[in-house]
């Protein structure tokens, strides 16, 4: 499975916004960039794409920024992947080679399992995983 930088950055940006839900205080691009580890020049383009897809709202002004347009429970990772251009999956490789052998069929099966896994994960699940991860790290200190 290949995950594009754009896809990774989009999910990281949404995670940063979802992590603070239901706080409606807008997060500035600079803050999202720093906390999500996404280069600011790419983040701006990604946030515009997410806004056009209806996942985030932008708020203008000095105290403006971005907030989620939907609740984290309503944002499915499979939808994000589909709308932002996919994963660069094994299925694409199969179509390029046009082979119908055991190896190609295996890649196709793996591809379908990845898609099924993504369908079962929403942004709220990812935020909860992040909270658990941070909680585990704080006990190690």
Describe this structure in words.
The chain contains seven helices and two strands. With 141 residues, the protein is mainly alpha-helical. The chain is globular, with a radius of gyration of 17 Å. The longest helix has 18 residues, at 102-119. A two-stranded antiparallel ribbon has the order 1-2. Helix 1 (5-19) crosses helix 2 (29-36), helix 1 (5-19) packs across helix 7 and helix 5 runs antiparallel to helix 6 (102-119). The chain has one domain (5-140): Orthogonal Bundle (Arc Repressor Mutant, subunit A). It has helices at residues 5-19, 29-36, 40-52, 77-83, 90-97, 102-119, 123-140, and strands at residues 56-59, 65-68.
**Tally of contiguous helical segments:** 7
Query: Roughly what is the average pLDDT, rounded to an integer?
Result: 86
Order of helices and strands: HHHEEHHHH
Helix content estimate:
55-70%
Cα radius of gyration in angstroms:
17 Å
Unreliable sequence segments: none
Features:
141 residues; mainly alpha; Arc Repressor Mutant, subunit A; two-stranded antiparallel ribbon; 7 helices; 62% helix; 6% strand
Task: Please give a quick description of this structure.
With 141 residues, this protein is mostly helical. It contains seven helices and two strands. It has a single domain (5-140), classed as Arc Repressor Mutant, subunit A (Orthogonal Bundle).
Question: How would you summarize the topology of this molecule?
Answer:
Elements: H1 5-19, H2 29-36, H3 40-52, E1 56-59, E2 65-68, H4 77-83, H5 90-97, H6 102-119, H7 123-140
Antiparallel strand pairs: 1-2
Helix pairs in contact: 1-2, 1-3, 1-7, 5-6
